Amino acid sequence: MMDLYQMKTIFLLLPATLLSAALASCASIKSTQPNVGAILFEENCQRCHRYAEDLREPKEFLKRTVHYGGMDMPSFQSVLTLEEEDALATYLSTL
Ligand code: HEC
């Protein structure tokens, strides 16, 4: 038979457990691609392209441009991994 102390413990722990589960799922949402892309934009592109919205282009075009560079734009193939290029292109193309 549960005593009062045990019951209190259960009722105090249950909400805490649910809350931490909810927070954990938020944290995993935060680490999905668009936010990684936003950080990559700030770190690599913003100094020349001030607004991410200006680079809203088809994903494949973005990947190609970032990888190979342009006339005056530097290539990022030795700066970013293919995965990062993909995350960045996903972010910009879906703005
Ligand atoms: C050193 C400055 C510089 C940096 C850093 C830079 N760009 Fe560019 N970018 C340019 C210039 C200049 C052009 C104009 C076209 C050319 O050079 O061929 C351009 C053109 C582009 C274009 C094609 C034209 C357009 O406006 O749609 C895209 C897309 C693009 N950049 C995306 C990026 C992304 C994404 C990054 C970050 C990984 C980035 N750029 C970083 C200078 C830069």
TrEMBL record:
<feature type="domain" description="Cytochrome c">
    <location>
        <begin position="35"/>
        <end position="92"/>
    </location>
</feature>
<dbReference type="GO" id="GO:0020037">
    <property type="term" value="F:heme binding"/>
</dbReference>
<keyword id="KW-0479">Metal-binding</keyword>
<keyword id="KW-0732">Signal</keyword>
<dbReference type="Pfam" id="PF13442">
    <property type="entry name" value="Cytochrome_CBB3"/>
</dbReference>
<dbReference type="GO" id="GO:0009055">
    <property type="term" value="F:electron transfer activity"/>
</dbReference>
<dbReference type="InterPro" id="IPR036909">
    <property type="entry name" value="Cyt_c-like_dom_sf"/>
</dbReference>
<protein>
    <recommendedName>
        <fullName>Cytochrome c domain-containing protein</fullName>
    </recommendedName>
</protein>
<keyword id="KW-0408">Iron</keyword>
<dbReference type="InterPro" id="IPR009056">
    <property type="entry name" value="Cyt_c-like_dom"/>
</dbReference>
<keyword id="KW-0349">Heme</keyword>
<feature type="signal peptide">
    <location>
        <begin position="1"/>
        <end position="27"/>
    </location>
</feature>
<dbReference type="GO" id="GO:0046872">
    <property type="term" value="F:metal ion binding"/>
</dbReference>
